[in-house]
Amino acid sequence: MDARILYVRLPCNPIFPIGVVYLADHVRKLFPQAAQRIFDLGTVPPLDFAPALERCIDEFRPDVLVFSWRDIQIYAPVGGRGGNPLQYTFEFFYARNLLLKAKGAIGLLRIASGYYGELWRNLGLIKRGIARAKRYSPKLRTVVGGGAVSVFYEQVASTLPKGTIVSVGEGEALLEKLLRGEDFADERCFVVGETKPRDRMIHEFPAPIEKSACNYRYIEQIWPEFEYYLQDRDFYVGVQTKRGCPHNCCYCIYTVIEGKQVRVNPADEVVAEMRQLYDRGIRNFWFTDAQFIPARKYMPDAVELLQKILAAGMDDIHWAAYIRADNLTPELCDLMVKTGMNYFEIGITSGSQELVRKMRMGYNLRTVLENCRDLKAAGFNDLVSVNYSFNVIDERPETIRQTVAYHRELERIFGADKVEPAIFFIGLQPHTHLEEYAFKNDIVRPGYDPMNVKPWTVRKLLWNPEPLGSMFGEVCLQAWQQNPNDFGREVMRILEARFGCADLESALTAPIERDTRELVEA
Ligand code: B12
Ligand code: SF4
Questions:
Q1: Which residues contact 493 (CB under 8 A, 6 or more apart)?
Q2: Cα–Cα distance, 94 to 101 (Å, whole number)
Q3: Which of 25, 347, 500, 513 is spaced 20 to 30 Å from 195 by Cα?
Q4: Distances in whole angstroms, Cα of residue 351 to Cα of each of 131, 281, 356, 516
Q5: Nearest C-alpha to atom 25 of ligand 1 is from which residue?
């Protein structure tokens, strides 16, 4: 097997390209004789994307092209590429002032053109890369994958050249079979123009591969731009400690991308990988797991890992992760603080236990509070981002008051300046329970295009239904106007002024009889 494999990470905000690094590492361990090269367009200035890609292809002459596409979605609640998409959208939909509406429309147009521009540019880069590489390898195989492709594989595939292999989720097993020349039809993939994605393919389990420490000595040989990520000392480099999430949160697609079966990477291997990065000067790590502690069952794994990080003497690092704060113990809290966790995100979505249950999130909000108190007692004094998505299902004045009460309690625990309310609105994603609910309730029809950003589609996909939708729209607009630099806290202040603050106990109790059957059944 003497393949020449070029991994192209398509343009992306500078986030460490851990996906292609892991793929190249896996291939190297199985096929040491294969020639590999990583080319990260995240480190290339936009005007040079196409020429730089062609130069790299001319030089390397690959016979397998691996394109990795990380993200497409744009509804970040913060200023992003070309402004704040959520703000423009809300200005356009909800502003009463015509000037503000017009400003929203112009902003949206700019963002839509940027969004489509990026889509077409990436698709163009793939096509251009294929055409160039075919000059050297007429039998070239091209595989396209990554987070964005995993979510939007049907839409992305519709514009790719015939013969391109489109991969959903992890790509290790697929590349392995492709390079061995074996039939890969049973992997989570399909070939454009030849095969169709199987029904429910996305729900199939990924291959249970046990991951070993990535060999960075090898990676730096095949990736000349690796240095770029070592220069910025504030950069959080991705390290994966496990894959999969067993939960069912109604809007989440992580469980289909990574699967529901949690596969824990051996702690010694994770530490060995971190050690290599540490020795190269990295001090900030992002544990890229869907959830660092997905369930109570995985608490001993987290304890083992953190103890081993301490034992390895890496005592001046910082790390961050998505944490389900219902799965903590005082021992874990203590270890988290000792090992340098300085930021975490809790995605409770609502401070109302009733809504948390209706969204099928399996969180016990009372336990989350108790664990947060333990974390504070253990000495945690850094930033917590709490993700709230209002108006997902059955939101009412009463549940808004409960969320305010819950948030105020978190502030009492950590300090108001340390708890950042991140106000998201759910973007409807394919293959989620929420999508099924939207079908059942005629909000969108099967066959809709989830990547379409025309205003009337966005209005449905950016989940904020009436009767409360306009009210939330106005509250957000008011918050951007009054305090754009502290949007989340301002939203909370306005909601409290309008609706009041419930008694905390009511937020923590959920009457079972009011459950929303449709979503539970969807
Ligand atoms: C951790 C994470 C983050 C962290 C990253 C921290 C860090 N320093 O790395 C943070 C919180 C910063 C983040 C931010 C965002 N993220 Co994020 N993130 C994730 C998450 C949970 C894991 C990604 C990861 O690193 N996994 C581990 C690595 C090893 O896996 P991987 O990169 O996916 O690669 C594997 C496979 O994809 C595949 N693969 C990759 N490339 C290829 C190529 C081929 C050919 C093949 C065969 C296979 C293949 O094999 C790889 C190895 O197994 C995913 C969801 C998920 N569960 O996957 C979302 C995800 C990638 N994020 C997403 C988004 C949208 C974002 C944001 C843009 C959100 C926002 N609106 O602000 C931002 C901005 C990112 C940026 N570019 O600036 C989306 C992207 C898809 C989409 N909807 O567009 C995802 C899929 C979540 C989702 N909701 O759908 N994110
Ligand atoms: S716990 Fe997090 S990753 Fe798991 S299903 Fe829920 S939202 Fe998704």
A1: none
A2: 8
A3: 25
A4: 52, 40, 8, 17
A5: 288
Asked whether residue 489 carries a pLDDT value surpassing 80, the answer given is yes
Rounded to 10 degrees, the C-alpha dihedral 30/32/33/36 comes to 90
Tell me the pTM: 0.94
Cα gap 34→402, rounded to integer Å: 58
The tokens of 313 are what?
């003497």
Positive or negative, the CA dihedral 459, 463, 467, 471 is: negative
Tens-place pLDDT, residues 33-72: 999 999 999 999 999 999 999 999 999 999 999 999 998 8
> DSSP 3-state assignment of 46?
helix
Residue 86: CB within 6 Å of ligand 1? no
Tell me: the pLDDT tens digits for 505-521? 999 998 765 445 555 44
Q: Which protein residues touch ligand 2 with a CB less than 6 Å away?
A: 245, 247, 249, 252, 254-255, 290-291, 324, 347, 361
Taking residue 416's Cβ as centre, other Cβ atoms within 10 Å add up to 12
Go through the chain and tell me how many residues it has.
Answer: 522
Q: What is the DSSP string of 282-334?
A: --EEEE--S-SS-SGGGHHHHHHHHHHHHHTT-TT-EEEEE--TTS--HHHHH
Strand pairing report for 263-264 and 242-243? antiparallel
Alpha carbons 496 and 508: distance in angstroms, whole number: 18
The residue type of 224 is P
Rounded-to-integer distance, Cα 413 and Cα 237, Å:
29
CB 150 within 8 A of CB 450: no
Q: What is the 3-state secondary structure (H, E, C) of 214-261?
A: CCHHHHHHHCHHHHHHHHCCCCCEEECCEECCCCCCCCCCHHHHCCCC
**10 and 70 in contact (C-beta within 8 Å)?**
yes
Classify 8 as helix, strand or coil. Answer: strand
pLDDT above 70 covers what percent of the chain? Answer: 96
Is the CB of 100 inside a 6 Å radius of any atom of ligand 1?
Answer: no
Q: In b/e form, how buried is each residue of 79-103, taking b as 16+ CB within 10 angstroms?
A: eeeeebbbbbbbbbbbbeeeebeeb
Cβ of 189 below 6 Å from ligand 1:
no
**What is d(CA 493, CA 153) in angstroms, rounded to the nearest whole number?**
40
The residue to mutate among 361, 385, 426, 433, having the most atoms of ligand 2 within 8 angstroms of its beta carbon, is 361
The answer to whether the CB of 227 falls within 8 A of the CB of 249 is no
Residue 40 is classified by DSSP as E
Question: Is any ligand 1 atom within 6 A of the Cβ of residue 16?
Answer: yes
Nearest residue by C-alpha to atom 15 in ligand 1? 71
Q: Give the amino acid at 107.
A: G
Element housing 142 (H / E): strand 141-145
